Amino acid sequence: MIALSKKSSCSSQLCLALCAFGLLLLGDLSQAVPMDDQDYYLQEISNRDHYYSFPYPGEEYFPFTEQPGEEGTIRAAEPEEHPGFKPSRKELKPKKSSKKGKSILETPPDCPPLGLETLKITDFQLHASTAKRYGLGAHRGRLNIQAGVNENDFYDGAWCAGRNDPFQWIEVDARRLTKFTGVITQGRNSLWSSNWVTSYRVLVSNDSHAWTAVKNESGDVIFEGNSEKEIPVLNMLPVPLVARYIRINPRSWFEEGSICMRLEILGCPLPDPNNYYHRRNEMTTTDNLDFKHHNYKEMRQLMKTVNKMCPNITRIYNIGKSHQGLKLYAVEISDNPGEHEVGEPEFRYIAGAHGNEVLGRELILLLMQFMCQEYLAGNPRIVHLIEDTRIHLLPSVNPDGYDKAYKAGSELGGWSLGRWTQDGIDINNNFPDLNSLLWESEDQKKSKRKVPNHHIPIPDWYLSENATVAVETRAIIAWMEKIPFVLGGNLQGGELVVAYPYDMVRSLWKTQDYTPTPDDHVFRWLAYSYASTHRLMTDARRRACHTEDFQKEDGTVNGASWHTVAGSINDFSYLHTNCFELSIYVGCDKYPHESELPEEWENNRESLIVFMEQVHRGIKGIVKDVHGRGIPNAIISVEGVNHDIRTGADGDYWRLLNPGEYVVSVKAEGYTAATKTCEVGYDMGATQCDFTISKTNLARIKEIMRKFGKQPISLSLRRLRQRARQWRQRR
């Protein structure tokens, strides 16, 4: 015991001596470094442990070692292309030269983004020298990330350094050797302040300790940054460099602001067959589809190709034209294209109302290819869906806006380029506000103007030529009124959630408030059917795209509780037609790089199919007279649900309902009302619930009188004439 104590005492003295020696060395070192550099050096030392505190799942961490014979150097990239990488034809178009003489790149970069915007790069892979506060930490330094309205401590719009000096940096750990080729930067997204970096250096490293700056013949390259906070600026490295880490070191910034950046890194990860972690997490698809971004001409050609492959189940048509005269093409998929079949529901997907949200557009183009191929292959699920459903796919509602975004290219259009139509209108919120008409009528029960709870007519002011209504919006409304759609989804981007109506709050004094429809339980199920089958929407481990965490509602949200919008397509569809419409936000990145499309397809493929299948949930039937003729415009009511629907031209109807027992009534002008109980089961497939109703006595009398050229005389008029005769007789 005594010997052990002596040994412990010696060890303690030795540790103290070593610590003192270390402090002495650190003091000497600090004296050798300029005052400004001391703080920078100590920041690096204090932050370095953080790099190794997050090892890869399922494997130990081993820092990269330098190549034999090349210690302390960074290898330039080999001229040969990565054998597994397919360069895109039109991606990441570089910024044009400015008046300052910025050079123009002749060819687009051949490496895709690493994934800061798409969240492939995790928060643990982003580090910075300092940060103003948590909400402005390195994890917020992602291209196009949006700040909350309040710009609070958790969700702000950039990485902002804690101090304004040339020793600040933000760093990305690629977690594998990567050929870095370029950097894209933005300033801070903010309603209240203006902050951006005007110039910066780029450094790379293999171990996060020894750094090499990007150089040219005259020394370190100083890259030109941003001149405002929203437009992305692309800078290509003079020579691609292979390393694991890349660091951005701001050198100057907006004089009235501070150091704040959002960025994306371009790079090609190098193959590493020995790294099981990366091979296990690489997303692949077995579907042989055209994974690329399609401009207007290419989209039209792809539709023709699908129609040529499957002429018996597809039809191409257009619903109108855009402001610039481009036709709004749609593809119909059905076993009898071109005609409505009695008893068969109609479904629609639309995308591209915001022209810069292009992922939805490409998903619809991929979906039509997939359904054609699977139908030809005899996939029973797809065959059954096509034979029992009339499906309409409209991939580009706003082709004019898309053209602007496409010309800028992926990552360089910012958050809003191409969002609006050519005449500056947001199509998604350009529909008549029928909510206010309905709610005013309900609040003023004694009002002479009664508004029905369904098929509310469009106000006259909206139909006038002077109304601010896009031609694309008018075309969609005419399409919605012509075809008896039952269910629809409009694909959008910039978030990962399914939003269901109402989208407008009922209270005038609130901007966010849960505002349910009478069919709230049905809408919540429809939203969950998509979100729950998406690969990421309900994943509790995933990071929020921007400021909203939708996990508490399993990847779904009531539109009005998110942000209020008047005149949305969802609310209009519900109140003016029979169609239940939802907004499906399919990805954080509005315009993902072409290389991301296969993974995005895998994320959404099952959800797209499952959501279409929901059109067969609830009850369906035909309302006929005693002679077997369908009765159009008959009103279908469900007890306890203050929202009715109407039959189509052939007397058929579809009413989306969750499993349960319902008392259903039908009424039509000139016919006696009828009621029956219909039960909806849990198995897929709508319950048949037909009605046969007869004409009322008054309707039959009117029909007989019209047939013989006479009109029935009203009782009040008959009494007046009788009194007149009696008065004349008395005289």
UniProtKB/TrEMBL annotation:
Residues 1-32 form the signal peptide. The keyword Signal applies. May be involved in cell-cell interactions. Residues 292-615 form the Peptidase M14 domain. This is Inactive carboxypeptidase-like protein X2. It is found in: Secreted. InterPro entries: CarboxyPept-like_regulatory, CARBOXYPEPT_ZN_1, FA58C, Galactose-bd-like_sf, Peptidase_M14, Peptidase_M14_domain. Residues 109-268 form the F5/8 type C domain. It comes from Anseranas semipalmata (Magpie goose). Residues 92-102 have a biased composition (Basic residues). Belongs to the peptidase M14 family. GO terms for molecular function: metallocarboxypeptidase activity; zinc ion binding. Keywords: Disulfide bond, Glycoprotein, Secreted, Signal. Residues 77-110 are annotated as: Disordered.
